[in-house]
């Protein structure tokens, strides 16, 4: 999709990439977000980093933290996310200057099994206008295990991050300011360094977490100034 200075991709695959290694972005994930003023904002990684093409890859340094924006939960020590969902469906429309993309997805483990003891069915909506990109994630099911929307903003460690309040933060880039606003508190996941690095896409990111509360909806807005 493209609107104003925004360029993006929402992805859903139903195929396994290679020999059972199901790693590429899927599940209705926002796999790419670019802005012509500030550059790359979001970029997907493998769900789990594996040397699928060992002659073209290096081991991933540090912890394996995927960069694909996603809904995720951990139940009974098992990680489930929409980025493992091979059955997600996507629809879109473009009206009144706004692109609306909707994805119906499930939280699944790496074996494509939906989590059963907590909410698994989610609705993802992306609203793109010239002024902003909005992400809405919601469910009608009961959330038993702590569930979050993970937003890894691409950002080298030299860029300044400012938490304006519990629900707003900014990232100062050379050509502009990225502002993220949420209806729930935004937290930055604790890491050993200021950023997390992933070999695919070969970048650093700020691991921003937005946890679902009793209202069972997370609303995130990304703006560029």
From TrEMBL:
InterPro entries (UniProt xref): P29_C
Highest rank taxon of the organism: Bacteria
Domain named Broad-specificity ulvan lyase C-terminal: residues: 1-224
Protein name: Broad-specificity ulvan lyase C-terminal domain-containing protein
